Automatic annotation (TrEMBL):
Taxonomy of the source species: Bacteria, Pseudomonadati, Pseudomonadota, Gammaproteobacteria, Enterobacterales
Subcellular localization, as worded in the UniProt entry: Cell outer membrane
Alphabetic keyword roster: Cell outer membrane, Lipoprotein, Membrane, Signal, Transmembrane, Transmembrane helix
Species of provenance: Atlantibacter subterraneus
Signal peptide annotation: 1-17
Tree of life domain: Bacteria
Residues covered by the OmpA-like domain: 103-220
Main location class: membrane
A Pfam family per the record: Gly-zipper_Omp
Listed name of the protein: OmpA family lipoprotein
């Protein structure tokens, strides 16, 4: 028992020594700061605890399990969202959907040319396929709330635009639910022409404003 305590102490000392900078195993990037430090310490301490709590034969396996659990716990919310963001960026490559990080939130901007025809709320095949990739990641990381906002350009009356934007948000939510994302994680809202990201004075600007945004927020 005394020997195991000494080993654990050595593991913790090693964790503190290397905690200044760690490598995120999912992105391959060197990380400094609380998220990377926490994950590094958690991983090393978890490995030590896993090894010490396992039988001699299974000690290597116990160390690996402990390292994975410790990294997730040590990294906290930031680490959880980092990994989710990296996987979403991978899934969204070549789809036309942008992935933006805003603090601990992740925002997916789905432009109209990917998701919907003009004045329509039925998803295009390309949009449905894209949401399959989004759903795969969301199911893997269930500790995030999913807020779906629908937008239109400024053409047409207010009532029409509010209704159309809500229908588009609902269509995206329905596609995610059909793919297995829990409905109680998802909220939808039609924003109409609010919060334009481009000028409504040009056809190109209007096309950019006709969009759906999915914001992923960590559930505390």
């Amino acid at each position: 028992m005394k020997k195991r305590v000494m080993v654990l102490a050595a593991v913790i000392s090693g964790a503190l020594a290397v905690s200044g900078c760690t490598t995120n195993p999912y992105t391959g990037e060197r990380e400094a700061g609380s998220s990377g430090i926490g994950a590094g310490i958690g991983s090393l301490v978890g490995a030590g605890v896993g090894a010490l709590s396992s039988s001699k034969k299974d000690r290597g396996k116990g160390a690996l399990i402990g390292a994975a659990a410790g990294a997730a716990l040590g990294g906290g919310v930031g680490y959880y969202m980092d990994v989710q963001e990296a996987k979403l960026r991978d899934k969204m490559q070549g789809t036309g959907v942008s992935v933006t990080r805003n603090g601990d939130n992740i925002v997916l901007n789905m432009p109209n040319n990917v998701t919907f025809d003009s004045n329509q709320a039925n998803l295009k095949p390309a949009g449905a396929n894209t949401l399959t990739g989004v759903a795969m990641v969301l199911k893997e990381y269930p500790k995030t709330a999913v807020n779906v906002l629908g937008y239109t350009d400024s053409t047409g009356g207010s009532d029409l635009n509010m209704r159309l934007s809500q229908q588009r948000a609902d269509s995206v939510a329905s596609a995610l639910i059909t793919q297995g994302v829990a409905a109680n994680r998802i909220q939808t809202r039609g924003m109409g022409p609010a919060n334009p990201i481009a000028s409504n004075d040009t056809a190109e600007g209007k096309a950019q404003n006709r969009r759906v945004e999915i914001t992923l927020t960590p559930i505390q």
